[in-house]
Amino acid sequence: MNATQRKDVRNEILARAQEDHLQLCDVISVLVEADPSLGDSDLKAEALAIIQELMVDGLISAGDVRSDNDRLVHEPWDGTVEQVIRRIDTQWSALGHHPTLGDVCWFATTQQGDAYAAPDRPHSA
Q1: pLDDT, tens digit, for every residue of 106-119?
Q2: What's the pTM?
Q3: Class (C level, CATH) for 3-116
């Protein structure tokens, strides 16, 4: 994946996460749309690397969602970025396949991520 594709993927993930909680399978979908030639191991490596970059930059958090009065509330996982990435990697590997709906974790933008993913930033629906 080249630098332009990587930047586009980051921006798309942020835009989607700002609109609604994002699942790991959504991150995979964005990556496949950007570079359909990615093999399984490269896809996982790219996904984890981009997620890590976004977390290090303070733009997204990973965690679980729970229902609270008919709305979903994101509950970020505790731990360092490295611990969270390791947890995602471990749980993904335990699945034995690429994550699908509801698998592993959910992502939400932070306040800094919301500011970065401004509504006028171009992205697909």
Answers
A1: 999 999 998 887 65
A2: 0.88
A3: mainly alpha
